[in-house]
Amino acid sequence: MSLNVKLRRVRRKPPEGWDSIESTMEEFEQKMRDAETETHEGKRKSEAVWPIFRINHQRSRYIYDLYYKKEEISKELYDFCVDAKLVDPQLIAKWKKQGYENLCCLRCVQVRDTNFGTNCVCRVPRSKIDAERVIECIHCGCRGCSG
To answer: Which residue, among 111, 107, 83, has the nearest Cα to 94 in the 3D structure?
Structure first.
């Protein structure tokens, strides 16, 4: 689904400032299309969706930084991006909470997705894990988002 189709679904004209982020959002949309059509041969089932999680994270982080950190876009433009489903509002809500500033995806904090009812291994601080060991989250491929 192209960016223009998503924007038509919102049924309103993009607010002022859309021109400044449109090209970047179009690039993210193209990357997403490429990731969705990429071959999955030789990959585990979970590894096939890792690029999609990463692109979703990057796109959401881009808008989050512009709105909350740099204050370069308006509330109207931020709300428009949320309404058009260009960003993940639940992930952004987690980023605003202490300890979750670098969270890679929401599946890593859902205890129902783990064997022992705990957070994902990527949420364990690197200082608590053997430095020689390479950790990868099975959900999104993250190598440690807790710091």
So the answer is: 107
Neighbour tally for 110: CB within 10 Å: 12
Check whether 89 has a pLDDT greater than 60: yes
pLDDT tens digit sequence for 24-76: 999 999 999 999 898 888 888 788 889 999 999 999 999 999 999 999 999 99
Answer for the pair 108, 119: CB distance below 8 angstroms, yes or no: yes
Handedness of CA 24, 28, 77, 110 (dihedral sign): negative
Burial 6-43 (b: 16+ CB within 10 A, else e): ebeeeeeebeebbeebeeebeebbebbeebeeeeeeee
Query: How far is C-alpha 50 from the geometric centre of its chain's CA atoms?
Result: 11
pLDDT of residue 98: 92
Give residue limits of the domains in the chain. Answer: 3-96, 99-147
